[in-house]
Amino acid sequence: MTALVLQIEYTEDEARKIGVVGWVKNTSKGTVTGQVQGPEDKVNSMKSWLSEVGSPSSRIDRANFSNEKTISKLEYSNFSIRY
């Protein structure tokens, strides 16, 4: 379990570096789910990182992004890990 948390912490660090807000969480199926908000170019940078780079010990089989929409204001003030 510690390894999964460590992997999520890399995602949290990258999100803060890029400048997006939202959250990320490990699922019971061994996948990761979450929500990312911010300017379109920053969200796209985060999507690229999630689908092509990820944390050092992760194995990315595929990345599925859904429910994308334009919002008028951010719903989160930072990026966090949910448990």
TrEMBL record:
It catalyses: an acyl phosphate + H2O = a carboxylate + phosphate + H(+). It holds the Pfam family Acylphosphatase. Residues 1-83 form the Acylphosphatase-like domain. It comes from the Eukaryota. Its EC number is 3.6.1.7. Keywords: Hydrolase. InterPro entries: Acylphosphatase, Acylphosphatase-like_dom, Acylphosphatase-like_dom_sf, Acylphosphatase_CS. GO terms for molecular function: acylphosphatase activity. The keyword Disulfide bond does not apply. Belongs to the acylphosphatase family. This is Acylphosphatase-2. It comes from Rhinopithecus bieti. The lineage of its organism: Eukaryota, Metazoa, Chordata, Craniata, Vertebrata. The gene is ACYP2.
